[in-house]
Structure formats: structure tokens, C-alpha cells
Amino acid sequence: MSKKLPTRQEDYSLWYNELVKRAGLAENSAVRGCMVIKPYGYAIWEKMQRQLDDMFKRTGHENAYFPLFVPKSLFEAEEKNAEGFAKECAVVTHYRLQTDPDKPGKLRVDPNAKLEEELVVRPTSEAIIWSTYKNWVQSYRDLPLLINQWANVVRWEMRTRLFLRTAEFLWQEGHTAHATAEEAVAETRQMLDVYAEFAEEHMALPVVKGVKTPNERFAGAEDTYCIEALMQDGKALQAGTSHFLGQNFAKAFDVQFANKEGVREHVWGTSWGVSTRLMGALVMAHSDDEGLVLPPKLAPIQCVIVPVYKTGELDALLERIRPIQQGLIARGISVKLDARDTERPGFKFAEWELKGVPVRLAIGARDLDAGTVEVVRRDTKEKMSLPLADIVASVDQLLIDIQTNIYAKARKFRDTNTTRVDSYDEFKRMLDEEPGFLLAHYDGTSETEERIKDETKATVRCLALAEPDEEGVCMVTGKPSARRAYFARAY
């Protein structure tokens, strides 16, 4: 194996970047600001996608696909949305190249191939989707319209980091239309719950459900709900958002329906999404200085079998191991039998530890003769010798235990690093010395929120749905405050 990873303590950012690359999740591409998601990383994304897609369909949603390009006139129809994304848009202005007469073998943009109207490469799809919904919705019988799409989007980021912030990324975006505001709000809250359930049950990632302040709200939304998670360096990461759009997009694109009384009304909308940023959250929340720690429900390989043998013994040993492999597969466990004869067992142990495989079995002829198997669990690094006769059931239970333990460890970390503070001095000290979630009173004004952000680089992550009202005074201005907000520095 190559040299050891930097430790989280030494340089958390370098540790993250190196781990993503060395574990084979992703790498930088020839296109500035864009990434190549490698097979092992994409396999994790596929498991996320499959699980989320099932959850969407269970809640009545259907998948569709809409164009990558949005005519500028459509994009600017909802002014707040257009203004919010304007600085991040990639724009197509021409439709053809030609050979460059001044530079043999080179190409240039054909100056005669200018588009009549520029096309925005979608940073989000509200505009193109709502312009389509105008044709789909005529009557209350067409509602609710519950559509999701899996797609790529482009937001022209100048400072990028693999998975967390790239110019192009993968995501899903749900866009729904409803007959009443109450239905749309219920949809927004339902999808927030779906995201929270996925994060906690599958990613083993504890999250805080809350609502964003107006400053942090999605451009064009009436309300933005979010799930916020805490990474091991004490920074927050927004793991998913769900937006109540009111009638903003329906009015911008004139999406109306005839209600049961025959009166025409504008529909009420929502949008909601999670992205490959979840991959970054998965790495940063659980992994250690030896490599990835993957929750079994999302691990591409849940169990790896490493044969331990002397020269000339491998083929015979593999014959004895394969029934164990088949038994695990029959139980629904994804198994890798590492039969490479080009690497020593110690190298393989380190490689699969780096890749975060939850359970490792080391099997030699002597173990099989004794009716035992050496088992190592990735989360605690505990090594044990288990009876061969029960190995399938043992691994199955171990995967359940590991999933539970990874969540419990992350939950304990979050709870330990969530602190109530009452003074601005204490707030600033905690951010520098013991970063995490800080629950603090502020007066709720945009000006105070901006001041805190400018002076400390901390933002209001959310007003937690589960946090009770609590009379207090703003830590900055001394003005009355009705409840505490979750603050943190964030990705």
C-alpha cells in the first residue's frame, strides 16, 4: 500500500481529499472544477439512489426527465430564482464549431452560429419543469402532480472539493404541484421526513430537521426545510432540502387549474433534492485515519474473504472457501472473494480496510480444519474467532450490529458537540476552540444574522423543528428572542 493517510488531527481537509482519492471514490477530471466518480464511489451512489428511489415511489412519486438546457427567457421568468442562481450559470451561446483558418488542426466557434436565444445549462430545473406543467395541468383531476428526476446540474463553482462542491454534480430533484397550500406544505414536510429517515436508517447519520431563515432560503421559495448533519471536524453539512414554493412558480409560468367549483386558480408547488454531496457526508461523518468506515446498508461490498495460504495451496483452499461465499450470497450479503495471487494477505487487509468494507474474513486451511474463521469488523477493528458452522448467521448479525454502532457513535459525537451558549464572547470562543452545533438566541433579523456571519463565519443552520420556544435575549443585540437557533460553521 502507499504511505499512510494524513490524520484527521493533522489536516482534516487533506485527510478527506486523500481518502476520497485513495479509496477509489472519485478524482479530479480534465475539466476544471468537475470530478470523475470512479466505480467504487459510483456503486455507493447507486445504492443511495436505489434506496431513495424506492422511498419516493412508496410516497406516490414518478420519475421523468427534462432537458439539460433552459432558454434564458424561461429561466428569468421567476425573478428571485433567476437572481439567486445568475452568478453560477453556464450559458450556451453558439451551436457549431468550425476549423480555424489561422491555426491548422484547431477549431473555433463559428461566429455565424450564434443562437437566437442563449441557453442556460440547468443549475436547477424549476423553470423548464414549471413551463412544462402549464401543459399538463388543466383541472383539479390532474393534481397532485408528483414528479422526480435523477439528473446532473451545473453550478459554476470556482473553489471546488470532491463531492462537496463541484461545478457539475449528480442529484435528484422532486417537483410537485398541488391544489392547496396545505397539501403542498404537507408534501414539503413529508419529503423532509423521507430524507431524514434515509440519512439516519441507511447512512447512519443523525440529522437535525429544521427550517431555514429567510437569508438562507432557496431563491423563489416561501419556506426551505433542511436536514443538517455534523461532521467530525465540528462543521455542519446541509444534507438535503425541501422547499415550499407557494404559488411563485405557478404564477411565473401561469400554471392554473379549474377547481371543483370550476373556478381557475394557480397551483401550489414544492421542490426537494439531495445530491452527491451525501457522499462527502458519508466519508466525513464516519471514517477514520485508516480509511473509510461504511455503514453496511450502503457498502458496495459488505464482506470480503481473504484466503491465507502457502505457495501452491490457493486453488485447493478456494474450493473449500467457495461454499462459505455462496452461503453468504444466499443470505443477501454482498461478498468479495479476494483470490488475487499477486498480493500478500497483509496488503489485502490494508486495502479493504481503506475501502471501508464492514466485515473481513481471513480463512486458511488450518482455520477450516479447526472449524473456525477469523473475523474482523471495520468499525471497531475487533478481531474474533467464530465457529465456521454459524458463520453466515454470525456475519449477518454482525452487519446489523455495525450499522447500529456506527449510528450510535455519530449520534454521541453530535450530542457531545452540541452546546447551548448565551453570550457572544462564549459563542466566538466555542467556534474556535470546540466547534460544533451552537444553540444560541438571536433577534431574528437579517442584519444580525449577516453580522454574525461576517464576524465569525458561522451561519444559522436552521430553526430546529423539535426545538421548543424559549424566551431569551439576542446574544449580539440584547433584543428579545423567542427561541434558540442552530449555528455552526459549515461546508
TrEMBL record:
The record lists the organism as: Hymenobacter mellowenesis
Note what the entry says on domains. Consists of three domains: the N-terminal catalytic domain, the anticodon-binding domain and the C-terminal extension.
Q: What is this protein called?
A: Proline--tRNA ligase
Q: Which family does it belong to?
A: Belongs to the class-II aminoacyl-tRNA synthetase family. ProS type 3 subfamily.
Give the chief site where it resides: cytoplasm
| Upper lineage | Bacteria, Pseudomonadati, Bacteroidota, Cytophagia, Cytophagales
User: Which UniProt keyword terms apply here?
Assistant: Aminoacyl-tRNA synthetase, ATP-binding, Cytoplasm, Ligase, Nucleotide-binding, Protein biosynthesis
**Keyword RNA-binding applies:** no
Q: EC?
A: 6.1.1.15
Concerning HAMAP family, the annotation shows:
Pro_tRNA_synth_type3
Question: So which domain of life are we looking at?
Answer: Bacteria
Q: Where in the cell is it found?
A: Cytoplasm
InterPro entries referenced in this protein's UniProt entry, alphabetically: aa-tRNA-synt_IIb, aa-tRNA-synth_II, aa-tRNA-synth_II/BPL/LPL, Anticodon-bd, Anticodon-bd_dom_sf, Pro-tRNA-ligase_IIa_arc-type, Pro-tRNA_ligase_II_C, Pro-tRNA_synth_II
Give me the gene this protein comes from: proS
A Pfam family reported for this protein in Swiss-Prot or TrEMBL: ProRS-C_1
Instruction: List, for all copies, the residue spans of the domain called Aminoacyl-transfer RNA synthetases class-II family profile.
Output: 27-295
Reactions catalysed, semicolon-separated, are: tRNA(Pro) + L-proline + ATP = L-prolyl-tRNA(Pro) + AMP + diphosphate
